[in-house]
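Sharing a chain and its predicted structure for anyone who wants a worked example. Both blocks are below, sequence first, tokens second.
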Amino acid sequence: MKRTRSQTKSNSISNNNPQPQIKTLISSKIPFPAKKIPKLTTKKPILSPSSSPPPPPPIAKPLSSTGELETALNHLRAADPLLSTIINTFPSPQFSNKITPFFSLIKTLISQQLSNKASSSIENRFISLFDSQSSILPNAVLSLTPTQLRELGISGPKSTYIHDLSTKYANGFLSDSSIIEMDDEMLYEKLTSVKGIGPWSVHMFMIFTLHRPDVLPVGDLVVRRGVEKLYGLKGLPSPSQMEVLCEKWKPYRSVGSWYMYRFVEAKGVLPSHTT
């Protein structure tokens, strides 16, 4: 049977080049319902009215709590044989300071970049302005003018720092009770917002005033020097190296750091029976 010219042309299109037909179908105005693509989200699910937020992390017992220091020493002896030698060489630390957090922070600001003798003299003159240490309260400190503070030997910048700390206490941003109840992370954030208080000051405050058990002052030169000598390093460890090297001390890095002070004071010399 003979094929017509139109039949031949139609078969050629359908067999060899189907694209025009597909394009015709796609471009036809057939109403398809639009599909909604769900959006990805990283938002936390909304808690139902009956749900409650997760509790805050518990505050570790202070080292001045009954039995806590002994527990810390036993842990460190088992975790680090080299540190165990240091612990057995020096007397145990004492954490029994009864000073209030507020006055302790004022002492921190006064003593910056001063010798112990000079800072002690200024602190005594500062205390003499009050009936007793218990009467050293934020509003009372705010009543002291910069001139009065300078007459005690407190520099202009330090006077500003002391007033800023007292203001943050007076307006409720800080308080002795809230400081005691804050976890380490929140406490660090709050205290470093006070003028003149940096990371090192916060770490010292946490160890020696609040007796927090797991503080590692990675920027403290003496502690870094102690770690260098203890582990026979060729130079001072960086903050990140300190974190790695002292990981085994957790959760009692405050006590390990305290022993680094004693170790450096003793010229970093281990007893002769160690290698």
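Comments welcome. The chain has a mean pLDDT of 83.
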